[in-house]
UniProtKB/TrEMBL annotation:
Residues of the Peptidoglycan binding-like domain: 68-116
Organism expressing this protein natively: Kribbella sindirgiensis
Designated name of the protein: Peptidoglycan-binding protein
The keyword NADP appears for this protein: no
InterPro entries associated with the record: Peptidoglycan-bd-like, PGBD-like_sf, PGBDSf
Length: 170
């Protein structure tokens, strides 16, 4: 009887210990495990470790919407096609962007594609936000980063959180 009680206590302790050290849920396909496009310090190097968006990963997401805005700013996608759905047109535009930047044209926007997206000019403000402008050869749009490091973007219809797990842009 004592052995069973001891085994039960040890088992419960192991479960509780596991719960105490478990971290927050990670975004599937994100290199950093964060649920948002995120960064710290200067914006110029923020996107080098962003997660994948493609027809197979984060296909329906605000992170995809941000990637589509990058494609629009670079002249590879029409603004009307920024909808947060990584479909055939976004795949084709991503491949064109990758070829133009000397990358393997696989249609999946991962580390190399986010890094090739380029430099964001930025300013800091007193409220803790870092405000930036993403400028492509064709268009520009505003981005900002919260004090927690999470990105928002604005392509003219208000601020949208760049989340891997939700899609509110359309």
């Amino acid at each position: 009887m004592k052995t069973r009680i001891l085994s039960a206590v040890v088992g419960i302790a192991a479960v509780v210990a596991g719960l105490l050290v478990a971290g927050p849920a990670q975004a599937s396909g994100s290199y950093t495990g964060r649920a948002y496009v995120a960064g710290s310090g200067a914006m110029q190097t923020d996107w080098y470790d962003e997660g994948v968006v493609s027809v197979a990963v984060h296909r329906y997401s605000n992170a995809t919407c941000l990637w589509q805005a990058v494609l629009w700013a670079n002249g590879f996608l029409a603004k009307s096609e920024i909808d947060g759905i990584f479909g055939d047109r976004t795949d084709t535009a991503t491949r064109a962007f990758q070829r133009a930047n000397g990358l393997s044209a696989d249609g999946s926007a991962g580390r190399q594609s986010w890094t090739a997206a380029g430099i964001i000019s930025h300013t800091f403000d007193a409220s803790g936000w870092v405000n930036g402008l993403y400028s492509g050869p064709e268009h520009a749009f505003y981005v900002r980063r919260s004090s927690a490091g999470n990105y928002q973007f604005n392509i003219g219809s208000g601020w949208t959180w760049a989340s891997y797990n939700t899609r509110t842009c359309s």
